[in-house]
């Protein structure tokens, strides 16, 4: 059959028609009035209803009914949503609808039903409809061909940039931010008077977006790109203040939020971050916003630096966000990406067309009226003859014909004389008629000058724009920042002072100023400084500074990285915060090594040792960048776990000790540097059922000793020299004589005679003894009893406290 078409061609044709319908008829605004069809129809329907700003408002349902019944055959809720948005002062920079009733809130609350709310056009909206009845714009049939609707409004307002627009069409989208009316008028005047001006010249007057919700906006490269190309991204952020409270406490108050942000969701996000302890120092969060404005109050702990919390709010919450500008609009029934200059050119061209069409209309009306007045003047000058002529005529048509012949009048003039009331024959009325005729002649001359002289036309546009600015312009709400919006460098606010990081065996961590230890009275037992709770003791005691990195290695071979100042501060005797509240730890995962480092240089190395005797040496530079979720520090074989990490150099030596009392000593140089996720090489050849329990690093030439402790409370110390240096991977030598009485080796570490030893038992008892109380013996011995244990009890952990640490910890 001849009328058959392929489905491919039909789909292409139909989809193209659908795309054009969505682009032109729904989603993309017109560059001239800045309105989408639904908004234009809402305003025109109100104009037809006489629902102006100086009239009583009408029910929203009535307006919506007129819109969908006459012009916009779509859903009533879609039309009402558009109407509601036009009335929201937090959505529109200058609302086009004045509403009475509940029109929603910045918290995301929906508006009341349309049967409850009332609307009318705002005063500014009247400038959109000015002169619409003077044939200034084209009209087209509505959807059922029974009415006429405007294709565009003859607006005096540069609405595309004033209130912005957003929409998603087929294959394209628009997202135009709102601007300040006063700045837009200044830019239009520059474009009008100096058409050769550049985008940079216009941007000097149009500073940037002016959002109804205020806040800050960065006038950087992204904004320049948007104005020069039509596309760009700007950063916007809310406005916060710091308020002083009683007794030295402080609060952060959020007064303005980014455009289109739901305030309640922002508050929920802040609360969640505070509960997750990603933002530290918050004690209370309240939303005290009311009709006078936004006020979200964040109370801080005493001593918290507000700038740090503000920086975290900008970093982790939508209080700082990006606004992608995409200035796409319909130009001549085609979507087009526009520069700032192009938008101004299109609007001014629209104003020229409107004023020219209006002037043609006014000129035509004025000339018609002048023509009539000329005839009336002739009649008044010859009134007696006119009256006699009319009286002598039998019918009005005869009188009209005789007047036309006698005085050379047109038909319109003759009819006007016949329709003239007798009161116009008075001298006063005669003078008024003459004055009106003179004024009309002046107007006709003025109208013709507009049409014939481009400079006069520009003067009309200029005067209208200036009047618009004087009447409707308001101060800028969004503050533009010239410098790039960057987060405050926290370390600039925190002094790099000496602090102590303590990590307990059960996973409690805290940061304490070193001064709080040094200022304590010395000579006590020291338990208060070491003991962090029932059955717990300090596992790692690091004297460091706030700006250094804290590296936390877990038994599963992962590494987490924090800045030292990110560790919550606690008093000298405080328990601290559990490590699981700071790091996303997995089940049965714990931190077994804590190190601090200032720089991740290639000259520094980490040595890793595992339960199954593997060792690995890797450059510290490989661990510089760590995600919050941690990174793989060492590859582990199935059933293996990381037991210890040490910072080493080529001169260091390593002593691995095992559960069955074996030890091997070798140089770190025997372990070649490897990648971050490498498994490593064999450090010791383990016998069946044996495992490594400790990795001891010693600097060559030091006269230190190795303290070995067993499960049932036996221990000994042995000079390093008693362990001969071997090649890596050997079987090692005897380190401890393991018997049923001593139990397996629990661990080993280097000590000096002035150190103290802390032991924790399975019944949560803590024993503290001096290292000098344990005699120094050979390798193949079982040592001496360190602690008397009850039946079934055993030692679960131990650590040493150096003389320096004792002085700092002692109370």
UniProtKB/TrEMBL annotation:
Catalytic activity of the protein: ATP-dependent breakage, passage and rejoining of double-stranded DNA
Domain Topo IIA-type catalytic, first and last residues per copy: 28-493
Cellular compartment(s): Cytoplasm
Record's keyword terms, sorted: ATP-binding, Cytoplasm, DNA-binding, Isomerase, Nucleotide-binding, Topoisomerase
Entry GO MF terms: ATP binding; DNA binding; DNA negative supercoiling activity
Protein's UniProt keywords contain Isomerase: yes
Record InterPro entries: GyrA, GyrA/parC_rep, Gyrase/topoIV_suA_C, Topo_IIA-like_dom_sf, Topo_IIA_A/C_ab, Topo_IIA_A_a_sf, Topo_IIA_dom_A, Type_II_DNA_Topoisomerases
Pfam families xrefs: DNA_gyraseA_C, DNA_topoisoIV
Chain's role: A type II topoisomerase that negatively supercoils closed circular double-stranded (ds) DNA in an ATP-dependent manner to modulate DNA topology and maintain chromosomes in an underwound state. Negative supercoiling favors strand separation, and DNA replication, transcription, recombination and repair, all of which involve strand separation. Also able to catalyze the interconversion of other topological isomers of dsDNA rings, including catenanes and knotted rings. Type II topoisomerases break and join 2 DNA strands simultaneously in an ATP-dependent manner.
Note: Few gyrases are as efficient as E.coli at forming negative supercoils. Not all organisms have 2 type II topoisomerases; in organisms with a single type II topoisomerase this enzyme also has to decatenate newly replicated chromosomes.
Family label: Belongs to the type II topoisomerase GyrA/ParC subunit family.
Entry protein name: DNA gyrase subunit A
Organism: Oleidesulfovibrio alaskensis (strain ATCC BAA-1058 / DSM 17464 / G20)
């Amino acid at each position: 059959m001849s009328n058959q078409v392929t489905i491919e061609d039909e789909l292409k044709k139909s989809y193209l028609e659908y795309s054009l319908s969505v682009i032109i008829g729904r989603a993309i605004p017109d560059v001239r009035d800045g309105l989408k069809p639904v908004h234009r129809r809402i305003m025109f329907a109100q104009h037809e209803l006489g629902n102006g700003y100086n009239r009583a408002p009408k029910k929203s349902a009535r307006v919506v009914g007129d819109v969908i019944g006459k012009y916009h055959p779509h859903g009533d809720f879609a039309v009402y949503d558009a109407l509601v948005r036009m009335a929201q002062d937090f959505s529109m920079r200058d609302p086009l609808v004045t509403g009475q009733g509940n029109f929603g809130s910045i918290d995301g609350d929906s508006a009341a039903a349309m049967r409850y709310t009332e609307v009318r056009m705002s005063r500014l909206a009247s400038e959109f409809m000015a002169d619409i009845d003077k044939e200034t714009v084209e009209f087209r049939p509505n959807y059922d061909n029974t009415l006429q609707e405007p294709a565009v409004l003859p607006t005096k307002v540069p609405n595309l940039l004033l209130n912005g627009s957003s929409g998603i069409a087929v294959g394209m989208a628009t997202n135009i931010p709102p601007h300040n009316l006063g700045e837009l008028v200044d830019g239009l005047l520059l474009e009008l008077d100096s058409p050769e001006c550049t985008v940079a010249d216009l941007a000097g007057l149009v500073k940037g977006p002016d959002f109804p919700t205020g806040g800050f906006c960065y006038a950087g490269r992204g904004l320049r790109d948007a104005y020069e190309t039509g596309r760009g991204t700007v950063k916007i952020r809310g406005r916060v203040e710091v308020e002083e409270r009683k007794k030295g406490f402080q609060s952060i108050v959020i007064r303005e939020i980014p455009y289109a942000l739901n305030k309640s969701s922002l508050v929920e996000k802040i609360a969640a971050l505070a509960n997750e302890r990603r933002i530290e120092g918050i004690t209370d969060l309240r939303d005290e916003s009311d009709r006078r404005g936004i006020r979200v109050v964040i109370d801080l702990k005493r001593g918290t630096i507000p700038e740090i919390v503000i920086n975290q709010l900008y970093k982790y919450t939508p209080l700082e966000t990006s606004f992608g500008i995409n200035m796409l609009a319909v130009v001549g029934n085609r979507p087009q990406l526009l520069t700032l200059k192009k938008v101004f050119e299109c609007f001014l061209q629209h104003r020229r067309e409107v004023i020219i069409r209006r002037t043609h209309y006014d000129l035509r009306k004025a000339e018609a009226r002048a023509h009539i007045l000329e005839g009336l003047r002739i009649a008044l000058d010859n009134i007696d003859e006119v009256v006699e002529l009319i009286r002598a005529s039998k019918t009005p048509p005869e009188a009209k014909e005789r007047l036309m012949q006698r005085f050379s009048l047109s038909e319109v003039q003759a009819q006007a004389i016949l329709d003239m009331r007798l009161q116009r024959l008075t001298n006063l009325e005669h003078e008024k008629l003459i004055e009106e005729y003179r004024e009309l002649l002046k107007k006709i001359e003025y109208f013709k000058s507009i049409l014939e002289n481009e400079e006069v036309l520009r003067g009309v546009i200029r005067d209208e724009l200036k009047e618009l600015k004087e009447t409707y312009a308001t101060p800028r709400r969004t503050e533009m920042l010239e410098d790039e919006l960057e987060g405050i460098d926290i370390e600039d606010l925190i002094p790099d002072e000496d602090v102590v990081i303590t990590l307990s065996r059960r996973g409690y961590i805290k940061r304490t100023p070193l001064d709080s230890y040094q200022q304590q009275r010395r000579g006590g037992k020291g338990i208060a400084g070491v003991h962090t709770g029932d059955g717990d003791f300090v596992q790692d005691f690091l004297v460091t500074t706030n700006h250094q990195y804290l590296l936390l290695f877990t038994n599963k071979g992962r590494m987490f990285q924090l800045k030292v100042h990110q560790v919550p501060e606690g008093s000298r005797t405080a328990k601290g915060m559990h490590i699981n509240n700071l790091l996303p730890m997995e089940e049965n995962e714990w931190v077994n090594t804590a190190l601090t480092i200032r720089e991740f240089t290639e000259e520094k190395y980490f040595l890793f040792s595992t339960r199954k005797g593997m060792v690995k040496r890797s450059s510290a530079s490989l661990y510089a960048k760590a995600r919050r979720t941690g990174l793989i520090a060492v590859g582990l074989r199935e059933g293996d776990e990381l037991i210890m990490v040490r910072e080493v150099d080529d001169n260091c030596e390593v002593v691995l000790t095992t559960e069955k009392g074996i030890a091997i000593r070798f140089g770190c140089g025997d372990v070649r540097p490897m990648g971050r996720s490498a498994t490593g090489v064999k450090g010791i050849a383990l016998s069946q059922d044996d495992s490594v329990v400790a990795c001891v690093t010693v600097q060559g030439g030091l006269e230190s000793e190795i303290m070995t402790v067993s499960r049932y409370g036996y221990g000994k110390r042995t000079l390093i020299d008693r362990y001969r240096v071997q090649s890596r991977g050997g079987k090692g030598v005897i380190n401890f004589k393991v018997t049923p009485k001593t139990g397996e080796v629990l661990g080993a570490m280097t000590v000096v005679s002035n150190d103290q030893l802390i032991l924790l038992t399975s019944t949560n008892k803590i024993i503290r003894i001096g290292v000098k109380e344990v005699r120094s013996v050979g390798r193949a011995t079982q040592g001496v009893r360190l602690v008397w244990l009850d039946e079934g009890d055993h030692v679960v952990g131990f650590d040493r406290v150096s003389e320096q640490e004792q002085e700092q910890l002692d109370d």
